[in-house]
Design brief:
five-stranded mixed β-sheet, about 300 residues, alpha+beta, about 45% helix, TATA-Binding Protein
Length: about 300
Amino acid sequence: MNAKSSNNRPACFSTKIDLKLASKLESDLHNQGFTLSKPAYTIFQAKKKNISCTLYESGALTVQGKDKDEFIEFYLEPEILQTFHYSHGDLHLNLEPRIGVDEAGKGDFFGPLCVTALYADGEGVKKLYDIGVKDSKRMADKTVLKLADKIRKDFLHVTVRISPQKYNELYQNFHNLNRLLGWGHATAIVDLARKTSCHKIVIDQFADESVVENAVARKNMTLNLEQKPRAEEDLVVAAASICARASFLEGLEKLSKEIDFSLPKGASSLALRAGKKIVRQYGEDMLKRLSKAHFKTYAQVLED
């Protein structure tokens, strides 16, 4: 019997893979910084700190080391195995039909603010589980975009994407980010609720519950709103977070093409430097077109 790790998972993970994937796996591990060798009876062995992978000539693959769980969840399952029973094996699935809601872009100086509401029934929840849905904040951008394509094709959803120009106009009216977010949430929720007749809504809470409640009430609709921190643990909210994040990334890419260089995510020194470059080359009007003007970064960009 395998020794058990502290999270009750085996210390060594074993599975079988199609040997057609061996070259992709080997190349990916090399790119991730693994050192490769070829012991007897193996196609290769790959090692780096806290993790090792061995692919045998039979197609058997073993992974061990204290970082194996993260490696399996975020690389091996989505990219190679295309199943998620290891990372989600002990998950209790809530099959109640519901709408999940989340947003992306509120902490990013450049790019749009995006809110997605997504509906799933019991079968839909199972499908979200099978395709490996989890909180988008724990995924690489490439994985978010790839998974969002699958979700959008198969699930009813509404995304409100607010461009920086529109965002700045709305902020002048609301004078408060949470009220603006509440309006965006209510717009997506009510639109999808009318399309699906589903009144059960789960929201990743970002402010006092009254903010969204009041925004929904102003649209003359009575809904069962469940707002909670870390709601992305709910698969339907997680799927909404993936779609919102993908919409943000796509919007940021579109704006980047307008000025022919990549706009950074977040509001760090990278955003500050990019903002100063934009002002030098295109002027303040372009900066306002691409960014959220109430951020302190905006004033910092304009400082001498």
